[in-house]
Amino acid sequence: MTEGLNENHRNEIAEEYQGGEVHLLETTIADDDGETELNNNSEGSVTTDDGDWSISHDSGVETTELENTEAFNFGEPGDITINQIIVQSTVDGDKMLRENDPEGDTDLDSDDEYEIPAADLTYTLGGE
Hints:
The chain is mainly beta. Helix content is 10%, strand content 33%. The chain has helices at residues 7-15, 38-41, and strands spanning 21-25, 42-47, 53-58, 63-68, 72-73, 84-88, 96-100, 115-116, 122-126. The strands form 3 sheets. The protein has a 4-stranded antiparallel β-sheet with strand order 2-1-6-7. The longest helix has 9 residues, at 7-15. The protein starts with 6 loop residues before the first helix and ends with a strand.
């Protein structure tokens, strides 16, 4: 998505997700037909604030990272297996960053609470 962009352009892209909505998905979605399918598949969501994310740059490998600085608590999303974590752009709802196969306890029972701790959700833009 961002390969070949300079730091300023990667930063602009990362800023689109400041304050974005984070979704938990049990069904993997794709954006190959122009429709994201996100609204019908979100098992839980949290709206974040601008200050809930940090943006950092590594010019040596030409990457920009977007990382959560606050914990995101989804309450009890239900009896699900989380296959993707999505952050939806605040600028264009059809743009998203996907975390496929998230690490940690992603098989939840109906009474399990789910929280993403601070610094556990990182998206890298650029590089290879």
